[in-house]
Amino acid sequence: MKRKNILKFVSLLGIGSFVMLAAASCTSATTPTPNPEPKPNPPSGGMNGGNTNPGGGQGMMDSAAQELTAARTALTSLLASKNANVEMYSDYAKIKNDLTAAYTTAKSTSDNTSAALEQVKSATSTLQTAIDKAASDKNDFNNQNADLVSAYTSLKDAVKSETTNLVRFVW
């Protein structure tokens, strides 16, 4: 009876990990769509009284607001890739922790509605640098510890195979 309960537990644990792995691998990074090109005003036949800037100087504010919106969109698109990026480093605890901290910092800037353009750009740049550094650190670690990585991968595959076999027997 005790053995049967242990097998059930291990099989449920294995199934749960497969479901989480499938859910994590089904997410993909989204790419932002660029803003459409602004179109000039159609000719009005001289009806606007010669005032080519009817906004009264508001065009510069609109430009700054558009730039801030574009920067926020870039930051949001990087933040949207968090789950997929962090999951890629699940076997690398230090890299994963550093990347998670960078995402947390960028998220706080993104959530700050009064953040200035430079703050948003800086957060985007810092997060992109952290993502690039994580990839570089992972490659460096794999190259410097090829035997360890190979043994770890073999062990991980063996555990996965055993879990799959246990699931077959229990179900």
Structure description:
The two termini are 16 Å apart. The chain has helices at 2-25, 59-80, 82-87, 93-111, 117-144, 146-170. The protein is an all-alpha fold and 171 residues long. It contains six helices and no strands. Helix 1 crosses helix 6 (146-170) and helix 4 packs antiparallel against helix 5 (117-144). The protein has one domain (2-27, 69-170).
Descriptive keywords:
171 residues; 6 helices; 73% helix
How far apart are the first and last residues' alpha carbons, in Å?
A: 16 Å
Number of helices: 6
Largest sheet: none
Average pLDDT, all residues = 79
> Low-confidence stretches at least 5 residues in length (pLDDT < 50)?
none
Radius of gyration: 26 Å
Strand content: under 5%
Number of strands: 0
How would you summarize this macromolecular structure in one to three sentences?
With 171 residues, this protein is an all-alpha fold.
Layout of secondary structure:
Blueprint: H1 2-25, H2 59-80, H3 82-87, H4 93-111, H5 117-144, H6 146-170
Helix pairs in contact: 1-6, 2-4, 2-5, 4-5
